[in-house]
Amino acid sequence: MDRIIKSYSDKVFHRKIGILIKKYSKNKEDIRDEVKRLIDFKAFRRLLDLGCGYGWFLESIPDGFDVIMGIDCNEENKDEFLNIARKKAKQAIFKNLLLPTRIDLPSYSFDLITSVYSLYFFPEALSEIKRLLDNKGVFVAITHSKHMLEEGEKFFNFDNLRKLIESFCAENGYDILKHYFSHVEYYDYLNELVFKYDDHDALEQYIEFKRAFIEQDVEPDVVKEKMIQELKEKKVLTFNKNDRIFIARP
User: Is the pLDDT of residue 20 over 90?
Assistant: First the structure.
């Protein structure tokens, strides 16, 4: 788990892979734009971003917040997160914490809380999320389908990867959130990555991006070799990239 956590501190590589994913995605719409259609960010003033990383989610939202706080276990993400948050809010704060843990703030401190591709690391934090959320606030979570990388499971056993993702995934997120919130909605973001015959370098980079997840079960270089072989033989490979947006209210 430590290696997975540490992998989120390489913001340069994450930006590069973000560009790659956009290029090879069948769905060209940015999922952050979908969130902006679902909620009015201008209606909120106090934002808490959990598992915030370097601030990828913040990049797309409008400014006008009174305060934006990011919590992340990688101190390396602090400066970049604050650089982005300061453009969006009067006050920007970064806390270096490993979730789940109690956050030393009063109840109802935020009217918007987000957890983007991170809640499966700390689903136990939901009681703290509920405590910190204003009674009229909104919690937004984005997560993967449990079928992420299922294409590789024809050849490899990814039990540990599957266990992590299924801690909070598209398929079980509603039932988990209903234990904490009265109103839960969800919206599917359907997508797949399509790699063609000459895209083996991009496919290798994508698998490298998942290295910290894959290596819990299988040596990633073995996975790369096999999947590139499959691409050369089949000429086209597609990978499940379905995600789900959850919007929860007290």
Answer: yes
Which pair of tokens denotes residue 33?
């734009």
The residue segments making up the domain with residue 51 are: 2-15+28-192+242-249
DSSP state of 55: S
Residue 219 in domain: no
pTM: 0.94
SS3 content of the chain, % helix, strand, coil (to 5): 45, 25, 30
Q: Is 73 exposed, middle or buried (0-12, 13-18, 19+ CB in 10 A)?
A: buried
CATH code, domain with 85: 3.40.50.150
Asked if residue 236 is part of any domain, the answer here is no
Average pLDDT, the chain: 93
Domain count, the chain: 1
* Per-residue pLDDT at 210 exceeds 90: no
φ/ψ of residue 71, rounded to 5 = -120, 125
Residue with tokens 């073995």: 222
